[in-house]
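Homework help thread (please don't just give me the answer)

Our assignment gives two proteins as sequence + structure token strings and asks us to describe the second one. The first is just a warm-up. Here they are:
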Amino acid sequence: MRNIAMRLRFDGGAYHGWQFQLNAVTVQETIEKALSETCGENIRVTGCSRTDAGVHALDYVMNFKSNTRIPAEKLPYALNYRLGGDISALEAWDAPENFNARFSAKGKRYIYLIHNAPHSDPFLRQYSWHYPYDLNFENMREAAKHFIGTHDFKGFMACGGQQKTTVRTIRVCSAEKIPDLKDVIKVTVEADAFLYNMVRIITGTLIYVGCGKIDKDDISEIIKSGDRKRGGVTAPPQGLFLKKVYL
């Protein structure tokens, strides 16, 4: 039995997240159906993360057990033949027997795109949060730095999270403007692991800093308080991308 790892990229707009659900179409369900047809056997996959409905992935890692004789480097071509254009397999390889996409990941990087302009852009609406009001970008950039480090982020987790510990180490947290995309702010968060809706809540909190509802120097105290009510709103899902999985 082979343990095959694979990198994917997907547009999550048409899916109710990664995780299989009985009454909704998910990325996992779609991948498993296509893989089962490709390999000629019942395939179940393990994903590196449970992305929410509408969230996208530029670099998603999964693994599955199979007896297929298809060479790993050929699998993406065979799989993509059966997938729609909103999911694409990028590469596959034979992984060690103990490799698990979820537990072998050493960290992840997410990006979130904010379209800060008076009017919406039809080409950005499915891949960013359109925020039409003025934002103090410099305050947002300074506030982001306060999230870096090892902290208890229980105040930045939505209801429903089931993690054993809410302590996480954020290695990178930044807000920057994208030169080639006018009026777009990119929030980047890289950590060893994430809590439920953590990046979207951090982004919403930076928005509150940008519009003056939260002082940029109060972020550290808000983290220490563990009080979800003191943070910002949960940013909508369509602006979030899983950028990189570190193995």
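The one we have to describe:
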Amino acid sequence: MENERFKSNTAVLVAFVTVLGAIAACLATSAASSAAIADFNGLNAAISAQKAEIINEIYAYEHFRAFTDYSRYLELGNLLYDPNASEEIDAENGVMQREVWGVASGIKSTFFESRYVTVDGIYDLQRELDEALAEDSQKEDLNPNPHFSESDRMHKRSSFLTADMIVLAISFWFLQLAQVTEKRIKYFWVVIGILLGLAGILGMLIGRFLI
């Protein structure tokens, strides 16, 4: 009778450990899936960031070239003024000067933002790039680091829970061994199986909430 009760109780423990193993497997699979999603999101953010950087640099350097053209025309207009020129030449220079300055004004109003020109007359290219990147960041995710950090964490969780499954599998093996053993050593096997099962439960809690 005692032996039958022992086998019945051990069978319950075996079933319980089997369920725990299934739960650990489910958690490990879920963590691996989350890691894959985080990897994908991280790669997508990295690609978007690289794309935004390239496009912003193209536009910024186009604006910078326009600024250099503006500066050249502006300086050319200044050079057209000659205080020692005759009235006729001064009038001709004045016409060309207004035309050149008109071209400079058109470039300034059309091809670059005046707010990027410093008080020293230098084009702040880095400021434009930083503002463009900040604007792009508001529209889409350009920071891959949080995603890759989450991926690493999920990979660690998946690996830890996979190792925990092995612990539960060993627990299952000892409980099965205790169930088929007739000698008194079966109590030793069942104790080991229970301890490993408890370790498996602790491992699941650690993997789920602390990793």
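TA reply:
I won't write it for you, but here's a hint about the kind of observation we're looking for: Residues 2-209 form one domain.
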